[in-house]
Structure to design on (595 residues):
């Protein structure tokens, strides 16, 4: 069981405050899978109702309450001369107490598969009867929190990563440890862990092993990428290539490519091994395309999507599919999760492109421009009738600080960033839609939350 | 040989240039080491080993680092070789190949002499050999 309070301020004497989304948030945050939400008004002039959120209907309710318990109809409660210990500022509110008697101070709402069970037109209201006031509702969530495991497995992945690095030769382990310890969003391991809890063979330790192997594989590709892109920093620290030279970077990348594929193979699930091997091949093939397209920088949307699908989305999709396969999920569930991961991966990359133009990201603004990396906002801005010609002219020459600064300014000044943000959000909605028909054993809210957080970010 | 190459057509996508530039010879050399596997998987496993050997050479592992574009081609060779193993090799062979690459890259990172790739990968192919069968 878990408990909290919903607090709000009302603005009128009688008011229907829709608290459906607040309760829904409580359910999502609690991880409640199947059970009940109990609500209790903590006031004698605040009721609870489940009904339709339609403003004219609310006026009908108000009129009904007024007819049944009219204001100022000579309530004995309002005769302060006959009451003891009347507090200072006691309101004349006999009508409000009587109205509350007609409503209820309690409600129990059902939760199934992580979702509140409400009819199409049903919303949950706190009904203010003596406002305006500050109000509180007590909330208790009770039932099966079987899927509230998201905190624990994340720490399992960190432990597993540390354990794997501990047994490796220092020449390769030290650079990888620095990269791992520098952080990162760990989205791919999270996807593995979440999807590995879906099927009947849910084993958090095996899921953490697979998740850590996927993270090592991802980091191995980053180490080679940084050499190719001549990047000097990643996650706020010098890259392996910049700090230890390209020879060491190649060796470290190869070591963890091999180690990760071994760890994955040793799990003994052929479907998992194949899914991740295919993703790695797609990443490498699209890296070649990515570099080849830099000759035609900034490129077009079609080329961008082809590269991003291979470079980023393939591992998101494989992470989702492999977790589900490991847990023995049904083939249609694996397929739905693979599509979810693919769409999420593309959306994530688009959001990442937008962050490159944000001064609050913590990274140098316009790094993608400087490195001539494919970027959708830049592609759209270069197509813009107003700023496009200047952007294309600047990109055709050498890109020093002044040119990068000007390109960034032009991209920010047009509608390119908004367009990309909307496109990323639409992809996330598509990704979430892929989950609708799949039997996800209560994990839908977590996957939806992860998808939303992947595109709603500043860094 | 023609039939085998037709089966490998898809696997040589983007790597056609490499085929005439040493990959075909390396492939033929590994064909001698895959006789213990089912006939239809022999060319795939020989190609997997050849791709990994050529990939490591292209990257410049243990020597001077390859330029960026060559490194990426080497990465693709490694990834494709790895996928061929994942789809066609017994688990013991997959693990043996991974360990072979781990030992070579670890030696390279430590600036130690790198073991001979051909020898290590041939031994890895032997990890799938039933007891009593001789690997050439």
């Amino acid at each position: 069981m878990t408990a909290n309070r919903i607090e709000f301020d009302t603005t009128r004497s009688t008011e229907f405050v829709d608290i459906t989304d607040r309760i829904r948030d409580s359910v999502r945050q609690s991880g409640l899978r199947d059970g009940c939400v109990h609500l209790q008004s903590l006031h004698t002039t605040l009721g609870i109702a489940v009904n339709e959120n339609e403003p004219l209907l609310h006026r009908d309710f108000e009129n009904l309450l007024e007819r049944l318990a009219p204001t100022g109809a000579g309530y004995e409660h309002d005769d302060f001369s006959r009451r003891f210990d009347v507090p200072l500022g006691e309101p004349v509110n006999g009508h409000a107490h009587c109205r509350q008697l007609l409503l209820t101070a309690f409600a129990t709402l059902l939760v199934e598969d992580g979702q509140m069970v409400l009819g199409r037109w049903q919303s949950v209201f706190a009904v203010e009867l003596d406002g305006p006031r500050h109000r509180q509702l007590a909330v208790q969530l009770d039932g099966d929190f079987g899927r509230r495991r998201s905190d624990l497995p994340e720490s399992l992945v960190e432990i597993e990563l540390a354990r794997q690095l501990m047994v490796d030769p220092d020449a390769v382990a030290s650079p990888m440890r620095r990269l791992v310890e520098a952080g990162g969003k760990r989205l791919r391991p999270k996807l593995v862990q979440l999807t590995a809890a879906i099927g009947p063979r849910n084993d958090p330790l095996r899921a953490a092993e697979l998740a850590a192997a996927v993270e090592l594989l991802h980091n191995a590709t980053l180490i080679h990428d940084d050499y190719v892109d001549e990047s000097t920093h990643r996650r706020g620290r010098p890259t392996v290539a910049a700090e230890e030279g390209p020879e060491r970077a190649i060796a470290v990348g190869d070591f963890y490519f091999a180690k990760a594929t071994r760890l994955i193979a040793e799990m003994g699930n052929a479907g998992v091994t194949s899914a991740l091997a295919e993703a790695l091949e797609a990443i490498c093939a699209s890296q070649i395309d990515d570099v080849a397209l830099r000759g035609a920088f900034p490129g077009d949307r079609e080329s961008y999507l082809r590269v991003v699908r291979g470079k980023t989305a393939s591992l998101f999709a494989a992470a989702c599919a492999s977790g589900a396969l490991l847990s023995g999920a049904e083939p249609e569930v694996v397929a739905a999760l693979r599509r979810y991961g693919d769409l999420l991966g593309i959306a994530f990359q688009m959001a990442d492109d937008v962050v490159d133009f944000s001064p609050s990201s913590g990274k140098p603004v316009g790094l993608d421009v400087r490195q001539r990396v494919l970027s959708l906002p830049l592609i759209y801005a270069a197509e813009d009738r107003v700023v496009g010609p200047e952007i294309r002219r600047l990109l055709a020459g050498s890109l020093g600080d002044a040119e990068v600064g000007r390109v960034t300014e032009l991209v920010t000044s047009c509608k390119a960033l908004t367009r990309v943000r909307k496109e990323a959000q639409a992809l996330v909605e598509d990704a979430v839609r892929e989950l609708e028909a799949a039997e996800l054993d209560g994990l839908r809210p977590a996957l939806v939350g992860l998808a939303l957080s992947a595109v709603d970010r500043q860094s | 040989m023609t039939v085998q190459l037709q089966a490998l057509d898809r696997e040589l996508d983007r790597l056609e240039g490499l085929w005439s530039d040493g990959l075909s010879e390396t492939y033929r050399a590994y064909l001698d080491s895959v006789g213990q596997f089912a006939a239809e998987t022999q060319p795939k496993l020989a190609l997997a080993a050849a791709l990994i050997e050529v990939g490591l050479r292209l990257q410049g592992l243990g020597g001077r680092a390859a330029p960026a574009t060559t490194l990426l081609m080497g990465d693709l060779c490694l990834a494709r070789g790895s996928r061929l193993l994942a789809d066609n090799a017994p688990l013991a062979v997959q693990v043996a190949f991974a360990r072979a690459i781990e030992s070579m890259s670890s030696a390279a990172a430590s600036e130690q002499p790198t073991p001979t790739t051909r020898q290590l990968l041939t031994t890895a192919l032997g990890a799938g050999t039933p007891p009593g069968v001789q690997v050439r």
Q: What stands out?
A: Chain B has one domain: 2-128. Residues 68-88 of chain B form the longest helix (21 residues). Residues 3 and 125 of chain B are 22 Å apart (CA to CA). The two ends of chain B are 20 Å apart (CA to CA).
